[in-house]
Structures
1.
Amino acid sequence: MVATKNDNQIKMSARKVCVSYSGKQALFNVDLDILHQSVTALIGPSGCGKSTFLRCLNRMNDYIEGCIFHGSVRIDGKDIYDPKLDVVELRARIGMVFQKPNPFPKSIYDNIAYGPQIHGLAKDKSELEEIVHTSLEKAGLLKEVKDRLQEPGTGLSGGQQQRLCIARAIAVSPEVILMDEPCSALDPIATAHVEELIDELRDNFTIVIVTHNMQQAARVSQNTAFFHLGNLVEYGATETIFTSPQDERTQGYITGRFG
Amino acid sequence: MTNTLLKGFPIKEGERTETISKRRERRYAAEKRFKILGILSILVAISTLFLLIGNMINKGFSAFKQTYLELSISLPENKFPNEKQISPNVISELNFKSFLKRALLKKFPEIKSRRDKRLLYKLISSGATFDLQDAVFENPKLLGKTITTLAIASDDVDQYIKGNITANNQGRITIKQSKWIDKLVDDGVINQKFNLKFFTNGDSREPELAGILGATIGSLLTMLVALALAFPLGVAAAIYLEEFAPKNRWTDLVEVNISNLAAVPSIVFGLLGLAVFLGFFGMHRSAPLVGGVVLALMTLPTVIIASRAALGSVPPSIREAATGIGASPMQVVLHHVLPLAIPGILTGTIIGAARALGETAPLLMIGMVAFIVDIPQGINDSATALPVQIFLWADSPERAFVEKTAAATLVLLTVLIIMNLGAVLLRKKFERRW
Ligand SMILES: Nc1ncnc2c1ncn2[C@@H]1O[C@H](COP(=O)(O)OP(=O)(O)O)[C@@H](O)[C@H]1O
Ligand SMILES: [Mg+2]
């Protein structure tokens, strides 16, 4: 199905996205619009291509050997696969948070300062400090770490590490943040923390989140896309998807008959 | 109670515990055997090492001592009142040899025949003359005074004192000479002293004057050249192959060839150096520059392979994290991957360098085997290297070179240990423990 919404709200749009890994096709003609400053959840059984689709949105698939992309992805109407487009700049606009928290083996401060530094977002040290503090604040981590900014980021707990990674993504002030199962390695309390955070971030950022946790999708997202075997089966308002799904595969999945 | 747990399994109810415990005993026994084997092999390795080092120390330690004769010499008056006129040439016109001879002869007034005198003079090394000459040149005020000097004994006296050779009339020390030596020892004229010359001299035909400094400097210069070439080239090649190169038939071919190069016998690299660097480019023979280039070629594959392994073991999540916030591939490598890989790279490089330091064959091919007395001053001077020096001394007929050979081996081992220590310290410094 084609998922199109009111055009002026569309932040990113994917059209006819096909991806194959060394000849094995993982995504088939996916058309999907991502709405401005909202949370879009991608759900579906594992191996259905959620991560693959997410990684198409900031071209992280570029570095995977044998990965071939067809179709188009636009942000604010501009094709991100345009050969003239600078990937580095694109990634400054579209940040990413990964499944396993992956802070750099550096101090908490340096973890967050790195992005602004390489993009030249801070003119001097005090500006950089400001960015670090604001990012930690927005990620809800400042209170916990403000006295130990020079300590290694890898010394934090799993949940804190993941919020550190979110803060690191925020620090370059991206427009879109992609999250690939950001809570799957976290305990329920840390998960609740991150979910709250996602809800707050929606005010400033457009968020796309992959999750295998249906409750999570229902809790944090406004729109949900259900993938199955590389196809986008159904896409719509989260409420609609969870209360009255159109496709029986969607229904089967959200009621737990397969997954 | 009948056990429903085992329903459908081939094992019977009563046998279960027994079977498991029997098997467990066998498992523990196997584990114990494996442990014992491991400990045994470590013991064998350590004892071999101790045997080697112990043997070297046993043989070579006496080389760190040298026999001297304490002679009092009356020097002639200074005929050059103007100090500026005193040059090595002027000084060497004085017959220092005869001063030493006279001083020694004074101890044995009974010796009259020329043959006996000649035998007596042989107790002193030719180096003693130069030592005395140097001392006077450095301090001309000594002229006209009677001074006590330590005249270095000849290698035969040294070996006789150390008990390595015995006196007989066909040998290096005649019975007559041995009596004189014994008397000199009794009078306290002959003494042993720390052999500084061994560490400050270059090679010499006279064992008592031969030192290791020339070879050590030669080795260090060679290693410097080798590392300065192999480290940056190797790391750069590894970074390209591991991080940037597309995986295709060409890079596969390059990879296979690098692995093959690592296994090429070192003498082949020597032949290459001979043909290309000496023959084609006409570089200076016997120079550390050529030796270093050849050893760099030999070390390069090791550095590349170790560096690639170190780069490859950096978790991909770090690369993803950096890429995800917009680091360019170059920044990903330089800011994140390389710093994490540096300890591994250093270890690989040091292993390669240690192998190169002990390498003899390729250096023989490019002429670093020559007899060179002077200490090399730069990478283009003729030089030899420690392992080659060991090879040369081991090949010399004089008994005194036996202990020199062992002592040189000890020096080589010490340099190796210092290098490895340096590697460990560097590793510690760069290793991030978080
Ligand atoms: N790097 C890769 N190389 C080859 N195949 C891949 C790779 N990544 C994913 N795939 C394949 O693509 C399909 C979709 O994977 P993915 O997008 O990771 O699924 P999901 O995130 O929904 O679990 C799977 O069949 C998977 O085996
Ligand atoms: Mg996934």
Note: The pocket of magnesium ion (ligand 2) is lined by residues A 50-51, 180 (CB under 6 Å).
2.
Amino acid sequence: MRFQQIDQFAAELKADTRASVYQSTKTTHEKRTKLLFDQFTDPNRLREIAGEIKQHAIENLDTYLPRVEEKLKANGAQVHWAATAQSACETVLRIMRARGATKMVKAKTMVSEEIELAHFLEKNGCEAVETDLGEFIIQIDHDHPSHIVRPIIHKNRREIATSFEREGLGAYNDDPETITRRARHFLRHKYLAADVGLTGANFVSAESGRIVLVTNEGNSRFCLAATKCHIALVGIEKIVPRDRDLGILLNLLGRSGTAQDLTVYTEFIGGPKSAAQPDGPEEMHVIFVDNGRTDVLATECRDILRCIRCGACLNVCPVYRQASGHAYRSVYPGPVGAVLSPLLAAEKFPALADLPKASSLCGACNEVCPVNIPIPDLLLRLRNKAKEEGVPSPGTPPMGAWALLASQPTAWKASLVGGKLMNHLPTKMIPVPALQAWADKRELPRWRGGEFRKWMKARAKKPPSP
Amino acid sequence: MLNTERKPVTGKRVQLMATCLCDAFYDDVAAATVEVLEHLGVEVAFPEAQTCCGQPAFNGGDWAASRKVVRHTVKTFAGEEPVVVPSGSCAAMMFHGAVLEFEKEKDVGEVEALGRRTWELADFIVNGLGVKAWPGRYDATVAFHRSCHSRGTKSGEASLTLLNAIAGVRVVEFGEGEQCCGFGGTFSVSFPNISTAMGALKLDHVRAVKPDVFVSGDMSCMMHLGGLAAKEGKPIKTLHLAQVLRDALKGGPR
Ligand code: SF4
């Protein structure tokens, strides 16, 4: 019997990578829980309300998207729509070319990872420098993020120091402060040289057209302070109906994601430079990216579009903790990724159909999700979709024969008794692959099929004890 | 969403869903469940045609196969009496999983109806019958594993209420109690490395507090953890809550 790719990946993961992923996810998760329960009487109710707000928003995008476009335009921003990753990338390039720009500084945005923007711009003769420290390290290492909030959770500082030395950023020094200072020093020049600053958006209010950005390093502010043109790349599911919805969502995002009351920087961007707003880039573009989202909206897994990318489900997930993010072979790893990535893969679903299997369905993700996404239910739906589409699933025992047996009581009872033969067989000879796979790692208890039924019958015959 | 709204319990007769695991391996757990319920004055009927709740195929993604088994279960447990099951996981299958896989089926109503009268054992005793005290004695340090399928239900709390009510029981907390044991049904055989790594972590935490016995309301978790510990050559004593309750009535650990 072959095993699942993610399981293999986990088995081959370096022990110290696993240890650091485990330690930091566990610590963040525990702080998150303490913070929420110390500060709120009923954080679970808050998660439900936040979930309802986002669910309402995604189910009414046809109302809110035109509204947000109108507001953004009134605020002086230009609005673009990109149906695919390709068209999103091309829109960015078009904006840059129109300005004669070749240099971009980027804040952290998962959508840009999703559409592989930096790669595309490079191919087209533009430079796109990551300014988030983690993303910067990923970029110089030609690596991929392994966590949606902490892209380099899989790296230790010795590896980072080695990369910095290799890139000519200074002699080997693995002191985190030195690493940060060196990156900052290098990036300062990049900010000043760039013409375009690219950010994502954590939320966009349909009421005011405000774009909300949360960061901890202040790099997105630098991106906007030094450049003349701001491009915001926004997944269409980032809309919230009203400004006041941000109260609850921001309260939950910082606490859930990084165990902070609020991230260090929370920016509300109302538009480009104007008489009323004397600072900031003179040009602002908002690109709304679909890239498969409306197709997800049409499925029964649409709840996943509530996601506010906090990373809490990754932190609590026992499978993520063992396997780390690269095991998921996609931009979005962990429980959220196990749902979102195969869905966004569209016709390539079969290639990622194993992701929803990488879960014991323990439900911890649902319990921490600030927008209360029933992730286990969605994983189950996708497992069923894979089954219905006939995608092979290594190691998953076939269920047809079992279902037949379990709907025929006479056959069931006979096999209960017959199973006793197993007690006399060496494990290797048990004719059921799933039981063999089980017994390879764990002792199998003694088969006592039918004993309870016998016991029940025997006491039914006895006169009831007084 | 978990559908944990229950019909209030009226009569004192229940149907026992013994679970396929008890049917095949853990007959003493099912027997203890019967004795515990009878101690509370509950008459226990055992529908002979019962097999399994349908969860293996549901979790494996084969909903068509699972529905076949659920339909059989619905037929087997006809009637109005509460159905009591010594497993949080099978209970959740009845009030949540089955409903999910039947959402587009014509007979979803019957499935929902069974779900509304299906109770996990501890939940039934404490919240269904209103019993919060437990007579007898059981001298032991107990580590209690709160199984994942009881998240969002009242079962975990109910189990602890009962354990703490037994004279002589000392419940000890262990690290990362909220984490999964790594069983996960088919997950345990298709992701053997991750599954056993999760189990090993759980065992480390449990062994660190040196309990006399490791107790749960779900034998699937115990089968995995107990089996893992035995394979390591360091077996631990595992019991179902029902066995502890019954043994307390009989004077203590067997
Ligand atoms: S699914 Fe929920 S917990 Fe996971 S990243 Fe998204 S919002 Fe956070």
Note: The mean pLDDT of chain A is 94.
